Records
---
Amino acid sequence: MIQTPAIASSAVNGLPSTEEESIRIPGFIKPYGVLLALEEPQLEILQISHNTQEILGIPPEQLLNQPLEKLLGTRQASELKKSFGGDFNSINPLRISIKQSGKTLLFDGIIHRYDGVAILELLPTKSKSPSTFFNFYHSVKTATDRIQETTTTVELCEAAAQEFLNLTKFDRVMVYKFDPEGAGTVVAEAKGESVKDSYLGLYYPATDIPNEARQLFFLNKVRVIPDVNDPPVALVPAHHPKTHKPLDLSLANLRGVSPFHIEYLQNMGVVGSLVIALTKRNALWGLISCHHYSPKPVSYELQTACEFVGQVMSLELVSEEENDDLDYKIELNTAQSRLLESIAMAQTLREGLIQACPSLLELVSAQGCAICINGDITVMGATPHLDDVRDLVQWLEREVQDNMFFTDCLSSHYPVAEQFKDVASGLLVLTLSKIQKQYLLWFRPEVIQTVSWAGNPEDSYQVDETGVRKLCPRQSFELWKETVQLKSHPWRTVELEAAQEFRSALVGLILRQVDELTKMNLELARSNTELDAFAYISSHDLKEPLRGIHNYANFLMEDYRDVLDEAGVAKLQTLVRLTQRMENLINSLLHYSRLGRAELSRKPTDLNELVQQAIATLKMSQSRASVDFRLPRPLPTLECDRTQVTELFTNLISNAIKYNDNPEKWVEIGFIESKIGNKNAKIPYSPYPTFYVRDNGIGIPEQHQGKIFQIFRRLHAQDDYGGGSGAGLTIAKKIVEHHGGEIWVSSQPAEGSTFYFTLPEQEKA
C-alpha cells in the first residue's frame, strides 16, 4: 500500500539514490571542459582531468605538479592568484586565453574553493570577450518581467515553464513542486512542437532524489548535462595527493554524472538536461527541469541567466503563495480571534476552548479535536474513542518532542491508528505544556485518492540474486494509477502557520494571566499580613477589655445581688454569655487566619490510629451520646500534617454527632478509590483516594449546601444542637485546601450527610 504520493526526481535532476555512491566525489567529470585542483598560494597543479590532450593539446602528465603559469602565462596566472582572494561570485567567469600550436583557445574560467582545495574549471567558449551587462540584461528581462506580472502560483509556474522554454530552446520544460516528504508532482509544463506526450500532473517517486542531492542544490543551483552519451573523464591522479581523498566536486560545474542517472535519462529518451533549483525560505520548493532529445550544449552565460531567473522566481514564490492563501488566511485569523476572545473571558482554558468549539475546528479546518489538560481529555466533533485518544496522547508524550507535530498519514507513525482511520488518518498536535500535560489535537478523516504516476513506482526497485532489494533506473514511464489509502487531506502551510500563531498567542495570553495572578497573589499576601495583624489585635487588645466586661459583670452579680432584682441579674448573666461567645468568635477567627499560612509538617501518618484518637476524645467530651462508630475497612497511611488532619476528622465527626437527633446514631469513616470515580457522589477521577465521613443525622437542604463552609455561618439558632461558633467546617475546608485537596458534601434532609475530601500527597522530587 502506497502511503504517500511521491514526485519528481530522477526525471527532474537525475540523481541516484544509492548509499554506495556519493555524488559529491564521483572521481570523474563531464568531458566538455578541463578541471584543475591547485595548491595555494603558488597555484601548483596537483590534480587534473585526463582530457587536456583533447582540449588543450597538452598531455596531463606535462601539467601535473607544475605552476599554473606554465599553462596560462605569468600575467594570467598572477591575475588568477589575486582572484582567489576575492568574492568568487563577483569574479566568475574569468576570460582566459591559452596559446597552443599557433592557435588561441578561449575559455570561461570558473574558480572556487571547497574543502580547503582551490579548483579552476576551463569551459571552452567561442566568444572573444566576456558577456556585457547589457547582453545579460536583454537575455533575462523578458523572462523576469513575465514572471513578475503573475498574481497566482499557478500562473507563476506556467509562465516560468514557457519563459525557460523560450530562453533555453530545450524541447520540454517542467516545473516540479515537492511536498514535505520529498514527493510531489509536475505542476507546469511547456513543450516544443515536436513533443507530443505530456508529464503534467504526474507523480514521481521520492526515492529518485537522495538527500545529498537536495543539499547540493543549495550549493550549486544549476546542473547541466549536454549529452548523456558523452564518456566521463577521469581525474589524474584519482585521489588528491595532499588530502589522500577523492576530490569533492560539490561546487564544480563539470562534476560527473552518476551512471544511475545516465541510464535513467536514456530510458526516458532524454539526451540533454538542464536543472535549476527553486527555493523558498531556505527550503527546496521544487525544480525547473529542461529536457532535450538530442545533444544540447549550454553556455556558462546561459547557465548564469537561468540561475538568475530561477532566483527571481524563488522570490516571487513567497508572495504568490501568500496571495493564493490570503482569503483563507483571513478566515483562519478570524477563527483565531474568536478563540482568544473566548479564552480570555472564560474562567479556565478548557472552558474557553470548549465554548469556542466551532472556531477551534475552523482554525485548521479539522473535523474533530481533543483538549487534554492535566491528563483530563475532552473530545469534540469526529474523533476516535476517548480511550483511543488517551492512548494516543501517551504515545505523543513518549515519541514527540517538538511543540508541533503533524501528519496526513498517522498510521505510518502510529500503526494502531489504522483502527480509527475514518476519523483520524490526519493528526495535528500542539503542545502547550509538557509539565502540565496540556495538548490540543486536531483530526482529519481518511480521503481515498487516485494517484497518476509516471510509471509504476515499484519499478524503481529490483531484487538481486542474493534477494536484496535495490534501487535501479526505471524502464517505463507510461501512465500508471494507484489508489492511496490511510491518508487525509494534507495540512496546508497556512494552516500550520495559523496553529503556530495560535499557540504563541495562547502562551502569551496565559503568561499575562499568570502575571496578573502574581500581582493578585502579592496583593493577597499583603492583605493576609494585615489580617494577621488584625487577628493579633483581636486576640490581645480586644480580649483585654472583653475580659474586663466579663469580670465586672460577675463582680456586679456577686457584690450587688441583694440590691439587684431578678431582671437585673438575668441581664448581667446574658452579658457574661455574650462576652464569652465573642471571645470564642475571636479565638476561632485567629485560629482560622493562621491555619492556612502555617507550614505543613508532612509525615507518614496512620489514619486508623489518628481517627481512633479523635473518636476517643469525642467520647470523653460527649459521654452521654450513644454513637456507633463504623470503619468498613482499614484506612491507609498518608503523608500529611498530623495535627491539622486530626482537627479535620475531629470537626467532621463532631458535627456528625452534634447534628443528629436519631435515637440510634452512627458515623461511618472510610475512603473510596477515586481512580474509578463515582458520578452519583460526584467523585471525579483522581490518582488519590477520596475520604468520607457519613452520618444518619438531620441532613442539609440542597439550597444551603453551598453556604455551610462560610465562616460563622450557622443554619440553626445559636443554642440549637449544642451551639458553636460556626467555624468548624470553615476550618476543615482550610485544612483540606492547605493540603492541596478538595472538600464537598452530599446530603438529603432527614437521611444524613456525607462529607467527602481528598488529601493529595506531595509529589516526590
---
Amino acid sequence: MKIPFTRISLLRVALLIAATAIVVLIVPRADNQSYSYELNQPWKYPLLTADFDTPINRDSTSTRQMYDSIEANFIPFAKRTDANNKTAIDRFMTSVRPDVSAQEATLLSRLVSQAYADGIATPDLYHQIHRGNNTKYRIMSQAGDEPGTLHTFDGTHVRSQKQAFEFVDSLYAHATGKPRHELPAGVARALGVVLVPDLTVDSVNDTKYRNQEYLSVTSAIGVIQKGQRIVDRGEIINQQIYTNLNTYTDMLRSSRSENARHSYFYIGQALYILCCWLVLYLFLAIYRPKFFASLRNMTFLVTLITLFVVISTLVFEFNMQAIYVMPFAAIPVIVMVFFDSRTALFSLLTAVLLTAIIATYQFQFIVLELLSGLAATFSINHLSKRSQLLRTAAITLAVYSGLYLALVLATDGNLRQFNPQMLLMFVFNSLILSFAYILILIIEKIFGFTSMVTLVELSDINHPLLRRLAEEAPGTFQHSIQVSTLAAEAARAIGANTQLARTGALYHDIGKMESPIFFTENQHGVNPHAGLNPETSARKIISHVTDGLALASKYKLPQVIRDFIAEHHGKGITKYFYNTAVNESPDGHVDRHLFEYPGPNPRSKETAILMMADCVEAASRSLKDYSQQSIDQLVDRLIDSLMADGLLRDSPLSFHDVETVRQTFKKRLATIYHTRVAYPTIKKTPEEKQSAAG
C-alpha cells in the first residue's frame, strides 16, 4: 500500500525527529567525553565496565600520604671530594711553620684533619641537612666508574666552611692559651685556603634513589580486567573509585577507538528514544486515527512529554533524588482532561520510559511512576472540579509511599536502605500535582482545547450569556434546557462526551436572542412572519446561526461550543418556509440555497446528537397526543428524515449508535409527557348541593 506523503505526514515526521533530537541532546552522556562526576557524589550513569585492562592506581589521598612519608624519611645523598687529602695538609703545615712553632703546626694540622673528618659541607648541603628533621646523609663510595659501598653518616657534626674555621681557631686558642680570633695572619690565610668544603650534594644518586622509592607509589596496585565493573549507577564515588575513573577516562581519550565508541553511544541512545516515540505514534495511528490526523493534537502531546523529560533531566543533574519531585502522574490527568484514558496512559508510558534512561534505579523509577500514574488516572475519571485534584494528589502520595516501602523491603529485606528524603520528594510531587489545574488552563489558552472543568463552568446557568438568554428569550432558554437533557442522556447511552453534549446544547440557539420574536417558542399570539415572504422569513430564521457564532466570539466561547452552534442544523433547510415558497411559486421552482443553513453538517458524535435532539424536542411540542405510539412515530420519522437528507453522513455515529439514540429519545420523551392521573374530588351530599344552590 502506497502511503501518501502529505504535508501533515511530513510535519508529523519532523515533530518526531525534533522531539528525538531534543531528548538525545538533553540526557546525560554515558560516553567517555561526557562523564561528569564528583568526589563523594553518586554515579548517575548506567553501570560502567572496562573496555580494556585498566590499572588500579592508588587514590590521591594515599598517594599524597606515601609521598609525604618518603619525603619525611628520605636520607639525602652527598659526595666527598679530595679536598682533605694528605698532600693538601702537608702543604698547609709547610706554609704555617714560619708563623708558629713546629708543635703548634702539628696541632693545627691535627685540627684541620679533624674538621675534615667531621665534614665541611657546601652551603646548600649544609642547609638541607640542618633545616630538615633528618640529620643523616648518605655517601656512595666510588670504585672507578661503578657505584661502591653506601655509607650513612650522622650529619649532626657537619660544619660549614665558616664553622670549620671557627672550630680550628677555638681549639687552637684553647690548647695554646692564646686569645681567639688572633691567629697569625699567615696561619689564618693558610686555613682559608685549606678549609674548603669536601661534602657536596650528590644530585645524581639523590634523584636516582628518590625515583626508585617513588615507583612504589606510582606503580599500579592491581588491574581491572576487561569487562569488569568499575562503578555502578547510584554508587557513591569514593577516593579510590574517583582515581579509577580518572585513569579509565584518560586511557579512553588516548585510545584509537574513541570516536567510534562516541558515535555508537549516540546511536544507541537515539535508537532507544526513537523507539519510545514510535510506540506512541503507532498506537495513535492505529487506535486514535482522528487524534493522529490533527497536527495540533500531536504537537500538544509531543511537547508535553518532551517538556517533562527535559525538566526531569535538568532536575536530575541538580539532585539525583529530585527526579521524584516531577509529577509524572499529571501527564495522564492532563491528557485525559482533553482526550481519553487510553491515550493518557500511553502518554504516561512513553514519558516514563524516556526518562528512565537517566534514572539512578531504573526499575524502581518505572514501577513508582507507572503505578502512581495509573492510580491518578483511575481516581479522576472525569475532572469537573478543582477539588478532585486534591483527592488525586493524596491518593498518589499514598501510592508512592506504599510502593517505595514495598520495594525497599522486597529488595533488601530490611529498612536500612529506607531513605526518609524520598518521602519528602513524594510530598512535593503531590503538591505540584494538586496545582495541575494551572497547567490545564495554560494548555487551553495555547492549544485551544476545552477541558471538562471549563465545560462544567460554562454549563452553569448563571453564566452571563445563559442568563441573558433566559431574560431575552425565555422560550428558547427552556427549549435549550430540554434539548441539553435529551442530548446528555443520548450521549451517555452511546459513550460520547456527556458534559460536552449538555453544554453545547445550552448554547446552540443563543443567536435567537438577536430577534427572539421570530421564533415560535418566544411568541405570545403575535407571529411576525405573517407579513413576510418565505425568503425573508427563512433569512431571519437562518440568521440565528451566524448571530450565535458572533455572540460566541464576543463572549470567547471555546471552539467546541461554536461547533454546536454552526452544526446543529447542518446544511439542512428551513422546510416550513421552503415548502411554503414552493407552493406559492407559479412554476414550483425555488432557489433552494435561499432556505439552506450555512452548516457544516455535524462532524462529531455530540453535535450529531444535538441535531437529532433539537429536531425531536421542537417537534414534540406540536403533538396533540402524547401516547407512546405517537412519540415513537415522531422520533422515527424525524431521525429517518435527517438520515435521508444526508445530514448525519459526516458524523462518526454508527447505525447502532443512531438506534440507541432513537430509543433513548423515545424513553425520555415518554417520561416528560407521561399521562397524569386526574385527582378525584369529594362528592357533595344532597344537603350541601341544596345549600350551594340556595
